[in-house]
Write a structure and sequence with these properties.
Keywords: Transferase. The protein is α+β, with helices and mostly antiparallel strands and 274 residues long. The chain contains 8 helices and 8 strands. The protein has 2 domains: 70 residues, Phosphorylase Kinase, domain 1 (2-Layer Sandwich), CATH 3.30.200.20; 182 residues, Alpha-Beta Complex (Aminoglycoside 3'-phosphotransferase, Chain: A, domain 2), CATH 3.90.1200. It is 37% helix and 16% strand.
């Protein structure tokens, strides 16, 4: 299927006495020690089952890859819908996205406490670098200085951990699926929303990124902490245009040349909230 980056995702037809069912097979590369990643995803899917979220159900798994040629594998139900990156009603699309994020954050479920410099793929604080094509390098340096301060206390909520448009399935203007469940934590809600904001800026515009924040705050009834929002935004680096193109996989136009400038504008806006 389209858009898999860390794993291969296949749609499989299962035929049982003439009754055909579509299921999803997710396989990680063998030999890379990713069985723990899959084990975590299985446990997380079982945790959120029955939560009211549109999530796939685990059918079978082989985390060690013993019966799948060494590839850690997970068989899941196929959720209806598809990734929608060209919405006909962008405002409604952002509202539904914000509503789902707020629903995730309302769940009273256990998860590890998020550690800002250990539990994500952001560069270590001392290794943060201004993107090569930054238009205003001072904006990035100012953001790095803010990150040097200890993270502020914020109410810890249940986090998806990879809340991006490419992990949302849609049908008929409604979200029908939330996928990629291997990064749950409890931490600031601004982490999930900030990651999504970074993606909207990279793919669309600073205005749409800011609009998502506004809609989320209105729906959840709480302001997003600017430090944690900025932390999520600063996951952007010189490799991001390549990763975004791979994830989008032709499902919408990607203006790679203007990507850094758009994210930079959102970083500047986040700084103004301090």
């Amino acid at each position: 299927m389209t858009g898999g980056v860390s794993s291969a995702v296949h749609e499989v037809t299962v035929d049982v006495r003439g009754a055909r069912t579509l299921v999803i097979l997710r396989q990680y590369p063998g030999g890379l020690g990713l069985h723990e990643t899959l084990t975590n995803e299985i446990a997380n899917l079982e945790l959120v089952a029955g939560s009211g979220l549109p999530v796939p159900r685990v059918l079978a798994a082989d985390a060690a890859g013993d019966s799948t040629d060494g590839s850690p594998s997970l068989l899941m139900t196929r959720l209806p819908g598809q990734v929608e990156l060209n919405p006909t009603e962008p405002g409604s699309w952002r509202t539904r996205t914000a509503e789902l994020a707020a629903l995730v954050h309302s769940l009273d479920l256990p998860a590890p406490t998020f550690r800002p410099w250990a539990d994500s793929w952001i560069a270590p604080l001392a290794e943060l670098r201004v993107p090569a094509d930054a238009q205003r390098p001072g904006v990035w340096r100012a953001a790095f200085e803010v990150m040097a301060a200890p993270p502020p206390a914020d109410r810890a909520v249940f986090l998806h951990g990879d809340f991006l448009p490419v992990n949302l399935l849609w049908s008929g203007g409604a979200i029908t699926g939330l996928t990629d469940w291997n990064g749950i934590h409890r931490g600031s809600r601004a982490i999930d929303v900030g990651h999504c904001r970074r993606y909207l800026a990279a793919l669309y515009s600073p205005e749409e990124s800011e609009d998502l924040r506004s809609r989320y705050e209105s729906i959840a009834g709480v302001a997003l902490d600017p430090w944690w929002d900025l932390f999520a935004l600063l996951h952007y680096d010189d490799s991001q245009s390549r990763w975004v193109r791979r994830q989008v996989a032709g499902r919408c136009p990607v203006d790679a040349c203007g990507m850094t400038a758009r994210v930079e504008a959102v970083v500047k806006g986040a700084l103004a909230r301090f």
